[in-house]
Specification:
heterodimer, A: 2 domains, 8 helices, globular
Chain lengths: 177, 82
């Protein structure tokens, strides 16, 4: 039971930190699950992020389902997924209610806050990129593969369907690694 | 997930992690370059937030709030401009 409560609390915090979309949750997932609790190793974290990117749906939602399942089975997956949806949804409802009653001055303040949030979210995304890219340095073949994938990502079908890039990289990995 | 420790499944995930890094890298590049075009204040905010997470191991929410406060602070001189 205490594991389920911890899962709910952790994924509620991850959901509440999802400013700037799914990729911005990667530092939160890393901090809560790898650095703070040790529920995942660095390797398992990379696998969860890869799996969450490969499957349809937002990254934080998929990661919640996978990690919840890994820690406490189907119940854990349901609890983690519900938490990561319901916590930011509740906050959104409250903020929208307050906004509907806000004066012009408050709306201006909110506009300034949004403008200040943009570069901070870019910083979060840079940290997310580093967390995913850093383990690739362990094997010299991985940065080479990443370089090839970068070139491939500019080709027509891979621009339209990024999932194709993920699948190609996966199969190249099976052949070479 | 049951087979994640199998060598071939593990190699598949290692391969996909290269593509995931590329996809995230491209998103970061487009957002960061757009943000930094608006001036050094945005670049400093970006560096502060990323630095707090990666170098100081700060909680990402603390880093985000620090970045937003910094950006609001340096914007006070010329409100409305970057």
């Amino acid at each position: 039971m205490s594991v389920l409560i911890s899962l709910a609390a952790v994924f509620a915090r991850i959901g509440l930190g999802a400013f700037g979309g799914g990729l911005a949750t990667i530092p939160f997932i890393h901090f809560e699950l790898v650095a703070s609790r040790g529920w995942l190793t660095e390797r398992a974290f990379s696998e969860v992020v890869s799996l969450a990117q490969m499957t349809p749906g937002p990254l934080a939602l998929n990661a919640a389902t996978f990690v919840g399942y890994r820690i406490a089975g189907v119940t854990g997956a349901c609890v983690a997924t519900a938490s990561v949806i319901l916590a930011p949804l509740s906050l959104l409802v409250i903020v929208l209610f307050l906004l509907s009653r806000a004066s012009g001055e408050w709306r201006n303040a909110l506009s300034r806050l949004q403008k200040a949030l943009r570069p901070a979210v870019a910083g979060m995304l840079l940290a997310a990129f580093w967390m995913v890219a850093r383990p690739l340095a362990d094997d010299w073949r991985l940065p080479v593969m990443a370089g090839c994938m970068l070139l491939l990502s500019r080709a027509g079908p891979f621009v339209r369907y990024p999932q194709l890039l993920l699948l190609t990289a996966g199969f190249v990995g099976v052949l070479l690694l | 997930m049951r087979y994640v420790n199998e060598p071939r499944v593990s190699a598949f995930f290692l391969g996909t992690s290269c593509a995931v890094a590329v996809i995230i890298g491209r998103v970061v590049w487009s957002i960061a370059s757009l943000s930094c075009k608006e001036g050094w204040k945005n670049f400093a905010t970006l560096a502060l937030t990323a630095g707090m997470i990666l170098l100081a191991d700060a909680h990402p929410f603390v880093a985000l709030v620090a970045g937003v406060f910094f950006r609001l602070l340096v914007a006070d001189g010329r409100r409305g401009s970057s």
